Amino acid sequence: MSDVAIVTAALTGVLTDPRQHPVPVTPAEMAAEARRAADAGATVVHLHFRRQEPGMGGLPTWDPDVAADVVGAIREAVPGLLINCSTGVVGPDVSAPIAVLARVRPEVAALNAGTLNYLRTRSDGSWAWPPMVFDNPVEKVAAMAGAMADLGIRPECECFDTGILRSVAMYRRAGLLTDPLWVSLVMGVASGMPADPRWLPLLLEHLPDGAAFQTIAIGRAEVWPVHRASAALGGHVRTGLEDTFFLPDGQRATSNGALVEALVGVLHDVGRRPATLEEARAALSLT
Known about the structure:
The structure is a single chain. The chain has 287 residues and is an alpha/beta fold. It has one domain: Aldolase class I (TIM Barrel, Alpha-Beta Barrel), CATH 3.20.20. It contains nine helices and twelve strands. The protein has helices spanning 27-40, 64-77, 95-104, 138-151, 162-173, 200-205, 223-232, 256-269, 277-283; strands spanning 4-5, 7-10, 44-47, 82-85, 108-112, 116-118, 132-134, 154-159, 182-187, 212-217, 236-239, 273-274. It has an eight-stranded parallel beta barrel with strand order 2-3-4-5-8-9-10-11, surrounded by six helices. The protein has a two-stranded parallel sheet with strand order 1-12. The chain has a two-stranded antiparallel sheet with strand order 6-7. Helix 7 (223-232) packs across helix 8. The longest helix has 14 residues, at 27-40. The mean pLDDT is 97.
């Protein structure tokens, strides 16, 4: 196990209301949060893009101009910071995320590696949102992976359930993906894998040979034991206002920087440290 771990900061998420939570929206806000995260030890920022019209910052956009403004501001604020773009869309049409990737040329992009019933219920049994299928059939995975290969972007295979994780090795055997593989274990989605550190040893038994992994833990207090277990088992780690609003002591985080600082503390506790930009690029085989 290397003593170095890549730390990713997921700055804003998809639909979180900026009127209720401290998520960045504008290019200037995104750049400032990227700077805070980088100063705390992050070498990668995971990005979603929001509509920029007044009052619309709680809604996503695939406008390449908006993406270019956000990524340009981040690259100016933190030269060399690695950019990881979301690509998640419902339905078979992937032209919008591919247009964003072609415009901003991130070093890394999320590759949603399988289909999930995306569900959550309230305490009274009602649906928190209308039940939806986050559909990622093989044809869609292949289209996104092919576009990333053409653009020289490293895929980050996001796995929300055990069957999705087990599919990644098959994608490699079928020629959809090439080494080195980068796998994210997404834990904490209500209808996916729970944010429970006891799952990690078993999940790692199904990690494709030679693949590096990171954990994405979504929730409150339960995310921090997952981060600690991941770090102790040799994984890379991610936090940010997309994943949690809460620090290990239960206080609300006011910035991505505070969450990254706490996560770096977890790394130090288990004898590891955050990767430098050069070490992160080498680990991801980025030229």
